[in-house]
Amino acid sequence: MSNQRVIYILLGATIMLLIGTSIYYCFRMPIMAFDIFHIYPKGLLGYNTDNPIIYFFAFCLPDALWYMSLLQIQSLFFEERGWLNRLLVDTAISLPFLLEMGQFFGFISGTFDWWDILTYCITLIVFLCLRKTSLLQPSK
């Protein structure tokens, strides 16, 4: 994979990670990670779940952006065929689904949400489509 392609992938992943974090920071409260550093955002939307668009924006979109960022970074490992690379890729693909299932069964604290599962599925499909047709495709 060319250095330019690696830079594009890392830059895209970083931007998506920052946007997802910004949405979380600006529109969700309380956020334990921010409480640790005594940073208290306004929480503009709070936990308004009545409007499905606001719900998607505040709750699902950050997860989709973080997942796409993870998948993009893991795409750097697709080119190599070793068992460790395959393990990293498989772990990245399955991680959010495993975390949601852990929440569903009470093994992990948090709130299980079918919309998150749907968001992860759509994100994975978009990633695989982009990988087939764009910069995410490994060089031959």
Features:
140 residues; mainly alpha; 69% helix; 0% strand
Structural account:
Helix content is 69%, strand content 0%. The chain is built from five helices and no strands. The chain has helices spanning 3-27, 32-36, 52-75, 83-104, 114-133. α1 (3-27) runs antiparallel to α3 and α4 packs antiparallel against α5 (114-133). The longest helix has 25 residues, at 3-27. The termini are close together. The mean pLDDT is 81.
- Counting DSSP H or I runs of 4 or more residues, the number of helices is 5
N-to-C SSE series? HHHHH
Report low-confidence residues grouped into runs of 5 or more: none
* Topology, number of strands: 0
Helix amount: 55-70%
The gross shape turns out to be: globular
The oligomeric state of the chains shown is single chain
Radius of gyration: 17 Å
**Structural class, from secondary structure content?**
mainly alpha
Q: How much strand?
A: under 5%
Give the averaged pLDDT, no decimals.
81
- Can you summarize the main beta sheet? none
Q: Span from first to last CA? A: 8 Å
